[in-house]
Write a structure and sequence with these properties.
Length: 524
């Protein structure tokens, strides 16, 4: 998310070359490897280096290391709050399998995307390795398949960033209910946090500010481990109650699947539970008329087609990072070490999400709320409630930074489309930024259900960014530069591509149908 000057793929006229040299492209449609390195043209061949794509480290004296890079990637992909809900939607076994397989495939595709960037740095070192590039991902699409694919990537990233802003703004609103239960609606909280974000969005880019660096990463870790601690305490409290050693905690009976909360206001949980008549897998919920006794009767119906793909799309949303990966790689001191940073970040995130998701489902079953802290908040233990509130504060900070980052990147893209100057802010910049925030807020207020938008974005643009674009671009770049591509690699790419198409079509249909049928669609 660098804000440096744009770098065009090919500046100026191509230089004259001798007949023995191969001319590298000027239109991005087809690449032919050069025999020698031409400093003036910025073209450099790796034909005799003995290294494959992604193996040249392009080391710099300055830049981020592996652990710093992995920490930034963690900020982008850790979204543990919805994991119990996602696993409840897919079924525990299917959800756990997808929670491992899906992110590992995304990790592999991010590594592939990094290799694409290294190919660009090898081919045009003066343009891509020695200068700051504002939009590396679209540049990869341009060099691999032409201008139309650059536009496709830019549009996909724009919708992704706007959707991320909407989701995280609504998550912050939902988390506010944990701090101040029943005082204000989700719409009121979303409007409040939107007004708070108005000032930093109008002020400009905060991606490099000390606030994002020194509060974004700590809030991510605190919120993740705080949520895990709250779920562990809830699980222990439940087990104690089942064995008759505690009072006032939720009681989960394995024989009649009845979840009982004592001294809980019915309206609090029912308002923030899923708005569909059925819960995950067709589970129905009934409430007692006693405001101090909430009884949810859980029927464990089979997981439906729609619920499964809604859950998998939520998982994809939680681990999406393609729009940041190449930018992070570009800023690393050794770009070839991106796979190490990705492995650390993804393995850590998978473990955190597995622990959070399994604990949440085992404790609250199919009643797991998209905001699992609303379930935890129903516990009568003061210690659990304190941990839940502290976790909610850290989660709110994390999600506000995420919403701010997504909206700022979206506004930068809009400003560039409108040909506004990058170095000086005027009233037109302010108008674009306020308009972008109002659009995001309007979308969120229309249907204040962040899980619906997360599933829609995860199954559509994020699926394209992770499962469709990287293998296609890598194949084009490798073939065009004359680099060998093994059959096994091609087979893996075809499997990933097919997996992405399946997730995209099924998930987008299920998410769109769920969003359209949302019962709270009237913002008034």
């Amino acid at each position: 998310m660098s804000t440096g000057d744009d770098v065009s793929a090919h500046g100026g006229e191509p230089p004259d070359m001798s007949e023995s040299e191969h001319l590298l492209p000027t239109n991005g449609a087809e690449l032919v490897p050069a025999k020698d390195c031409d400093a003036n043209a910025g073209h450099c061949s790796r034909e005799d280096s003995g290294r494959g794509a992604g193996e040249d480290d392009f080391s710099r004296s300055t830049g981020m290391g592996v652990f710093t890079s992995s920490g930034i990637i963690m900020v982008a992909i850790v979204f543990t709050l919805t994991m119990p809900y996602a696993l409840a939607q897919t079924g525990l076994l299917g959800g756990v399998m997808f929670l491992v397989l899906g992110p590992l495939l995304m990790l592999y595709m991010n590594v592939t995307l990094g290799k694409c960037w290294v190919i660009l740095m090898e081919t045009w070192p003066q343009k891509y390795s020695q200068r700051r590039v504002r939009r590396p991902f679209p540049e990869i699409g341009k060099e691999a398949a032409g201008r139309s694919w650059e536009i496709a990537v830019r549009m996909s990233l724009a919708f992704t960033n706007m959707g991320t802003g909407v989701v995280m703004l609504l998550v912050a609103a939902s988390l506010s209910q944990v701090l101040v239960p029943e005082r204000f609606s989700d719409r009121a909280w979303a409007s409040f946090w939107g007004a708070i974000l108005l000032v930093p969005i109008c002020a400009g880019n905060m991606m490099d500010s000390w606030l994002l660096r020194y509060l974004g990463a700590p809030s991510t870790l605190l919120s993740s481990f705080g949520l895990l601690a709250a779920l562990v305490m809830s699980r222990l409290s439940t087990e104690n109650t089942v064995h008759g050693h505690g009072h006032g905690a939720p009681f989960l009976s394995p024989t009649n699947s009845t979840l009982l909360y004592s001294s809980v206001n019915v309206s609090m949980l029912s308002e923030h539970s899923r708005t569909e008549p059925e819960m995950a897998g067709g589970t129905t919920v009934s409430f007692s008329s006693d405001p101090h006794l909430l009884v949810n009767r859980v029927g464990h119906a089979p997981i439906t087609f729609g619920s499964f793909w809604l859950g998998t799309s939520t998982i994809i949303f939680a681990f999406a990072s393609a729009s940041q990966v190449v930018t992070i790689q570009h800023d690393m001191s050794k770009p070839s070490r991106l796979p190490h940073a990705l492995a650390i970040a993804y393995v850590t995130a998978i473990l955190l999400c597995l622990a959070t998701g399994v604990l949440g489902v085992e404790t609250f079953g199919t009643l797991s709320n998209p905001n699992i802290l609303l379930n935890v908040q129903c516990q009568q233990s003061h210690a659990i409630q304190i941990v839940a509130k502290a976790t909610a504060v850290a989660q709110i900070i994390f999600n506000l930074f995420g919403a701010l980052a997504g909206l700022i990147i979206f506004t930068q893209e809009a400003e560039e489309v409108l040909d506004l100057p990058l170095t000086k802010i005027n009233f037109r910049h302010i108008l674009v930024r306020i308009s972008s925030l109002l659009v995001a807020l309007g979308i969120g207020l229309a249907v204040p259900a962040f899980n619906k938008y997360a599933s829609l974005i995860g199954s559509s643009t994020m699926t394209m960014n992770h499962f469709l674009f990287p293998p296609f671009f890598y194949y084009r770049l490798m073939a065009a530069t004359g680099r060998p591509l093994h059959r096994a690699e091609i087979a893996v790419f075809l499997i990933v591509f097919g997996f992405g198409i399946m997730c995209g079509l099924a998930g987008t249909y299920s998410a769109a149908h769920s969003l359209i049928s949302e019962k709270h669609a009237n913002p008034c």
